[in-house]
Structures are given as structure tokens and as C-alpha cells.
Design a protein that fits this description.
- The longest helix is centred in the first third of the chain and has 16 residues.
- It is elongated and about 70 Å long.
- The chain is α/β, with parallel strands linked by helices and 317 residues long.
- The chain folds into 2 domains: 131 residues, Rossmann fold; 149 residues, Rossmann fold.
- It has 11 helices and 12 strands.
- The chain has a 6-stranded parallel sheet with strand order 2-1-3-4-5-11, with helices on both faces. A 6-stranded mixed sheet has the order 7-6-8-9-10-12, with helices on both faces.
- The chain binds beta-D-fucofuranose.
- The site of beta-D-fucofuranose has 12 residues, from helix 2 and strand 9.
């Protein structure tokens, strides 16, 4: 082989997902610990990562923790035993990861956090976090609602999975922004676990316990799926979502745009689940020994229902 052909071959190998530091043609193997399949957002994220890995010639060991933090720890330990080249972790909750991440680091396996953060004393336990700014999303939802309702609202809040970074931060950002408006109050708040079924159940209970003299005028759901469940509960109670109650949520899934076109949902804050290209770029950079930014913030956009019909054909999830 001519010496000049070598760098080209190496480059090709890198582009196909091979570890550039290995002379063999063994493909890169990634362990992907997914939180669950609770929402349309999450299934879109799973697809984005699996499709992107496939197109880069990477092998993915996929483990769905089904919302169980214990299962997620087991998945990480099994990736460790299988000696994967890198781990993608979409953590269910923020806490409890320190010990297992120490084991993973001792085995020199890099960890890329996708979509949610963890709370660890030693931030060096993961290479980078690729996720939206959930506090900013909560703020954007509150600001939009305040503007829409002229600074006065009695709000029912459907929170995401207890202890997850999006639930904590979306609640915090919303509350911080709301504090600027004395007429805006969260009167009920409970977790609906990011699912449509729980969103419906919790909203049903809220409406049953509602004081008729002081009815809710708005719903803030930490994701679209819960908002779609709440909309069913509101309609079943003989009220009109989008009219009697203004509904705002987060994610920007296709179902939310369809509900906006029907006039049932008022606005959604987009949080893109299409993280595959970003996550796998990070993995490839790390394996090639190149530096990666500690944090990649996925940008947000607010879509009110007036824009939904024009935007619907552009939605990719
Ligand atoms: O908003 C929600 C999902 O972690 C950002 O998890 C993600 C959230 C998303 O179940 O729909």
C-alpha cells in the first residue's frame, strides 16, 4: 500500500464510526441506557439515536429502563461488563448515579448524558450534557401564559416525573417567571409522570376538587403528552380547553400541533428530541481524543396555536 493512502483510509474508518486509534475494523459499540418510553418525545429521541448510530456503522446495546431507576443502574453495570466503548445515558432521575458512574470511569468508558442531567459532586464523571435549558422552557411557558391572560390566572400544573431534571427545572423556571405577576397563581400542582394517562387522571382529580367559585383558568403541563391527557379530562368535564381553560405545554410533538390546529391546545414550547447527531458526534469526538464542550444547550421556540397549521408540515417528530 502506498503510504499516502493511509490517512485517507483512517479518515474513512473514522467517518464510519470506527475507533481511529485501533488498527482493527471492529465497529464502535455504544451502550444506550434510555429512561423509558413514556411520551412521544422519548420514542422520537430513541429513534433519532438508534437511526443515527446505524447510519454511522455503530453497534448499539439498547436498554429501556421503563421508568425504573433501579433497572437503569443495572443497565449501566451490564454495559460495564460488556466493555462497551462509550455510554449514552438518558437519566430518569437526577440522583443516585455517583457510585455507578465511578465504576464506569474506572473502566475508562466515557459517558455522554443525553436530554436530562444528573446531580453528582464530581462533574468529571461524565464528558458532556446534551440537553435543553429546562428552566428557560418553564420561564417561556409562564411568560407566554401571562401575556395571553393579561397577568391573571388560576393555574393547574402537571409536573413531570418526580426527581427528573426536566420536572424540577420546568417547575422552577415557571415559578420564577410567575413571581413577576401577582395575579398569576399555581393553585394545584402534581406529577403526571410525563404520560398521557396520568395527565388525564390528575386533571380529572383536579377538576373534581375544584372550587366552582374560583375555577382554573389555565393548565401548565411539563410535557405535551400530559396536556393531551388533561384536554380529554377537561372535555369530559364539559369544559372547553383552549377557551374556558388556556393550556400550555412543552415538547412540540406532532400530536400537540394537531391539538393546536383543532384549537384545544394553546401553545407548546419546543424541546427537540432529535439528539442522535449531536450525541454521536460527541461520542466520536471523545473516542478520537478530541475535546468536547461540557454542555450543549438545545435551543427552544414557542409555538402558539395561531402558527400551528403553517408549522405542522415541517414537524419531524
Ligand atoms: O420533555 C418529556 C419526556 O427528558 C426532555 O422527558 C425530556 C422529557 C420530555 O418524557 O416528554
Amino acid at each position: 500500500m502506498r503510504a499516502s493512502a493511509l490517512p485517507v483510509l483512517l479518515l474513512l474508518a473514522t467517518a464510519c464510526g470506527e475507533r481511529p486509534d485501533r488498527a482493527t475494523s471492529k465497529p464502535v459499540t455504544i451502550g444506550f441506557s434510555q429512561a423509558g418510553a413514556e411520551s412521544a418525545w422519548r420514542t422520537a429521541e430513541t429513534r433519532s439515536i438508534l437511526d443515527e448510530a446505524k447510519s454511522r456503522g455503530m453497534v448499539v446495546k439498547f436498554a429501556d429502563a421503563q421508568g425504573d431507576p433501579e433497572k437503569q443502574q443495572q443497565a449501566l453495570r451490564s454495559f460495564l461488563l460488556q466493555r462497551v466503548d462509550a455510554i449514552l445515558l438518558a437519566p430518569i432521575v437526577e440522583t443516585g448515579f455517583e457510585p455507578v458512574l465511578r465504576e464506569v470511569r474506572a473502566a475508562k468508558i466515557p459517558v455522554v448524558l443525553v436530554d436530562r442531567g444528573v446531580r453528582v459532586a464530581d462533574e468529571g464523571l461524565y464528558a458532556t450534557l446534551i440537553a435543553a435549558d429546562f428552566v428557560a422552557e418553564g420561564r417561556a411557558a409562564a411568560a407566554w401564559l401571562a401575556q395571553r391572560l393579561g397577568g391573571n390566572a388560576r393555574i393547574a400544573e402537571l409536573q413531570g416525573t418526580t426527581g427528573s431534571s426536566p420536572a424540577l427545572d420546568r417547575a422552577r423556571g415557571f415559578a420564577e417567571e410567575l413571581a413577576k405577576y401577582p395575579g398569576m397563581k399555581v393553585v394545584k400542582s402534581q406529577s403526571g409522570d410525563f404520560t398521557r394517562a396520568r395527565g388525564k387522571e390528575v386533571m380529572e382529580a383536579f377538576l373534581k376538587a375544584e372550587d366552582p367559585a374560583q375555577p382554573f383558568t389555565a393548565v401548565y403541563a411539563h410535557n405535551d403528552d400530559m396536556a393531551l391527557g388533561a384536554i380529554q379530562a377537561i372535555e369530559a368535564a364539559g369544559r372547553k380547553p383552549g377557551q374556558d381553560l388556556v393550556v400550555v405545554s412543552i415538547d412540540g410533538v406532532r400530536g400537540a400541533f394537531e391539538a393546536m390546529v383543532r384549537g384545544q391546545l394553546d401553545a407548546t414550547v419546543e424541546c427537540s428530541p432529535l439528539l442522535g447527531p449531536l450525541a454521536l458526534d460527541a461520542v466520536q469526538q471523545i473516542l478520537a481524543g478530541r475535546p468536547v464542550a461540557r454542555r450543549h444547550v438545545v435551543p427552544l421556540r414557542v409555538f402558539p396555536k395561531e402558527q400551528a397549521a403553517a408549522e405542522l408540515p415541517n414537524r419531524r417528530y
